[in-house]
Design brief:
Blueprint: H1 2-24, H2 36-46, E1 49-50, E2 53-54, H3 61-92, H4 94-109, H5 112-123, H6 127-151, H7 155-163, H8 170-202, H9 211-220, H10 224-252
Antiparallel strand pairs: 1-2
Length: 259
């Protein structure tokens, strides 16, 4: 673990060095490649009150990030819950698979901005369309992963459970779901990643406070350093949440990867 941490820290430092060298060489304008010092300055500016201005657009950086994480959390939770239920049904019932399988694939291939405008027409410009967009974006990966995992459960497990007296409703919950759990958790990680990549699109309309809204607002005024800061904040929080999901995976499915 210590070696892995050293390698990761070395990789980050190497990227920072390349970034600093490119910015110091002035190959491009700072509008295109802001130096690390400018991004650090914006980190301080957006995290404090200066000259009577509080953070960025009246909100601190942690507030922007917190609002976005709340939207991601709600959308992902709804998407994961709905995806697991839908995936179980699709995987266990061939008729439902034939009816809903193509629909899930269709939604999965749609880019979020393609239906965000429709959600705004339906739900307005407040929180509902943003959370709904993240829900719709995160549901298909979990549903597909769950359905495929359920179909891959060895039939011997089911036969053994039936021979031991398991009831019909107990098999999906006590046999199929635990056996499919490793692939489901992988689908959950993918879904959370999709929600993260979608949050900027979700906050293009009335997205302040919100880290995606902050990025969108800074882009209009060519504040590249603020845009980079927002991207780094999303990436760092995404790494932290993915690490937590990996920890949960090790706790829930400790047998994965072991013979």
């Amino acid at each position: 673990m210590a070696r892995a941490l050293v390698l990761r820290a070395g990789g980050v430092l190497a990227l920072l060095a390349v970034w600093w060298a490119v910015a110091a060489a002035h190959l491009w304008s700072e509008v295109f490649v802001p130096p690390p010092g400018a991004v650090w300055h914006q980190l301080v500016q957006t995290s404090t009150t200066h000259d009577g201005v509080r953070g960025y657009s009246g909100h601190m950086l942690y507030e922007h990030l917190g609002v976005s994480l709340r939207r991601i959390l709600l959308g992902s939770l709804y998407g994961v819950a709905g995806g697991i239920v839908l995936g179980l049904v699709i995987g266990l019932v061939p008729t439902v698979r034939a009816l809903l399988g193509p629909l899930v694939t269709f939604v999965r291939t749609l880019p979020p901005l393609a239906y965000f405008s429709l959600l705004i027409i339906w739900f307005g410009i407040d929180e509902a369309p943003k959370v709904t967009l993240l829900f719709v974006a995160s549901l298909p990966p979990v549903a597909v992963a769950t359905a495929e995992a359920v179909r891959g459960v060895h039939e011997d497990y089911v036969f053994a459970a039936r021979s031991l007296g398991a009831r019909r409703w107990q098999i999906p919950l006590n046999i199929v779901l635990p056996s499919a759990l490793p692939e489901i958790i992988t689908g959950v990680r993918v879904a959370v990643g999709v929600a993260y990549t979608t949050v900027v699109a979700a906050e293009t309309v009335n997205g302040v406070p919100g880290i995606g809204g902050m990025i969108r607002d800074a882009q209009r005024y060519n504040q590249t350093d603020v845009v980079v800061l927002g991207l780094l904040a999303i990436g760092a929080s995404g790494l932290l949440i993915d690490a937590l999901l990996q920890l949960a995976e090790r706790r829930l499915v400790p047998w994965r990867g072991k013979s």
